[in-house]
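Now read the record:
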Amino acid sequence: MTLWDVLTIASGSAAFAGAWTAAKHAQFQPRSIVVALLGGLVIGACCIWSVHQMGRKVFGWLHPWLEREDKPSFHTELVVAAVYGATVLVWYPSSFFLGHWLTKMLLELLP
């Protein structure tokens, strides 16, 4: 398991946490718990898939550059750290927000 896999799974759990937070604000009624569980799983799976696809595209695009011999090794470490940092700083809050917002909208639609 690589660091990218851990970040991918954590992205899905952030969406699930956002959905659970939306259910908590709805006073934990039985329907809100069910909606939060199902919505969190679906949104989390979508976030996991999209982060995985993003990683494949970004690292596939960077792979030829990362494998070059004529650059210092700290450039490689810097680029990889920037990709990981951008994922943590941008994708996690977005994933949490999506999980919370979509679950809250679903809870408002249900009677």
User: Anything to note?
Assistant: The chain has one domain: 3-109. Residues 35 and 103 are 7 Å apart (CA to CA).
